[in-house]
Amino acid sequence: MDISAFRQSLQxxxxxxxxxxxxxxxxxxxxxxxxxxxxxxxxxxxxxxEAVHAYLHRKEPDPGNARYWYNRAGRPxxxxxxxxxxDALAAELLGRQVPT
Length: 100
Hints:
It is a single chain. Helix content is 64%, strand content 0%. The chain is an all-alpha fold. The chain has one domain (3-7, 23-92). Helix 2 packs antiparallel against helix 3. The longest helix has 15 residues, at 82-96. It is globular, with a radius of gyration of 12 Å. It starts with a helix and ends with a helix.
């Protein structure tokens, strides 16, 4: 799936299958459901989930918690807009998806 198809999927009531938990988190975030997005990000151990988790806390805004999660993900804190960060994370994570 590419970023265009991912964005188009936002018109549906549920995320497309299969999507990784970090991508599901970004999907729910784009739908305006921060809590569900946070649950998905929190459920994914490792850098991809931690990076999305950081983004979500930056958006909240909870900068201290965001910094913690950027450090856990091994990334510098994002400095661009939230939209830019969402786009970058989505493109990165979609590039890691296993083709179906």
